[in-house]
TrEMBL record:
Pfam families: PhyH. This is Phytanoyl-CoA dioxygenase. InterPro entries: Phytyl_CoA_dOase-like (IPR008775). It comes from Glycomyces terrestris. GO terms for molecular function: 2-oxoglutarate-dependent dioxygenase activity; iron ion binding. SUPFAM superfamilies: Clavaminate synthase-like. It comes from the Bacteria.
Length: 292
């Protein structure tokens, strides 16, 4: 199979950008069709069995596996899916890659787990070591739903809309101390095939799955190429599936990444996504990340 780049050919509208800047997230409804959902769901099931055999599941039987495409090459088409990818380049421009990704499978759990305060912003040390108020965006994420999460209580992600502009929230002195969710918190619901696009700074947490369904999701984090990958895979071009990817997909996984200034995007015409956007007149001099 040879992949063909088919990036969504329309930037977000000013109204969509305004909503994303205000709320910190947008929902993309019906992004995947039934065949795509099944392909992804089956891929997660395959990897889940490997992780189970290796003893790498949580005590509740949950899987959280980094390197989504390396562990599930079947998911490579999600990197620049035509119904989702324009959300990413509309915000970040052309000079970015996937720096972090993971696939998760959470079966139902019986009984209540011990309390743990899980609310956080993505980025880890980035949040301790940047001094601005609010912190810089730095990255955005796409979260693909492969199972029906249209009701609460299915392990849904919880968020506080608009909280990406907050550097802190109130929390307990210890993570194991019972504490209420932040004011304004909601559980994000969606059907299989829906996608959540969100700013990595939004305060969020995963809820427990007390339903009779198994939650299956994949997350892809996109960041400027001058922030290097958290997902470290040696010798990517020698992976058996590498040549099945198109140039934009290879860029997103760290290919086309020379050292020095070249790797930081100082030479746009050497970057596949820049050329793809330029050929379609999708660069925008009024928006800094998309300036020609």
């Amino acid at each position: 199979m040879t992949a063909v780049t088919s990036v969504g050919a329309a930037a977000l509208t000013p109204e969509q950008r305004e909503a994303f800047d205000r709320d910190g997230y947008l929902m993309i409804r019906g992004a995947l069709d039934a065949d795509e959902i099944k392909r992804c769901s089956d891929a997660l099931d395959r990897v889940y069995e490997l992780e189970k055999e290796a003893g790498r599941l949580s005590p509740e039987g949950a899987m959280h596996r980094l390197d989504a495409v390396t562990s599930c090459p079947e998911l490579a088409f999600l990197l620049n899916h035509p119904r989702t990818f324009h959300y990413v380049w509309s915000i970040l421009g052309w000079n970015f890659h996937v720096y972090h990704s993971h696939v998760d499978k959470h079966p139902p759990i019986a009984g209540k787990r011990p309390f743990r305060f899980e609310w956080h912003q993505d980025g880890g040390r980035q949040n301790r070591e940047t001094e601005t108020e609010p912190r810089p965006r730095l990255s955005v994420k796409l979260a693909y739903f492969f199972t029906d999460l249209s009701a609460e209580g299915r392990g849904n992600t919880k968020i506080v809309p608009g909280s990406h502009k907050w550097n802190r929230i109130d929390g307990p002195p210890r993570r194991d101390m019972e504490w209420p969710d932040p004011e304004g918190a909601i559980e994000v619901t969606g059907n299989a095939g829906d996608v959540m696009f969100f700013d990595r700074r939004i305060w969020h947490a995963r809820s427990d799955n007390y339903s009779d369904l198994t939650r299956k999701v994949a997350f892809f984090g996109f960041t400027p190429r001058w922030i290097r990958a958290r997902d470290l895979v040696d010798d990517l071009p020698n992976q058996p599936w590498w040549n099945d990817l198109d140039p934009v997909q290879q860029q997103l996984l760290g290919g086309h990444m020379p050292t020095g200034d070249h790797g930081w995007g100082h030479y746009p015409k050497e970057t596949p996504l820049y050329n793809w956007l330029a050929e379609r007149d999708l660069l925008d001099p009024s928006y800094p990340p998309l300036r020609p």
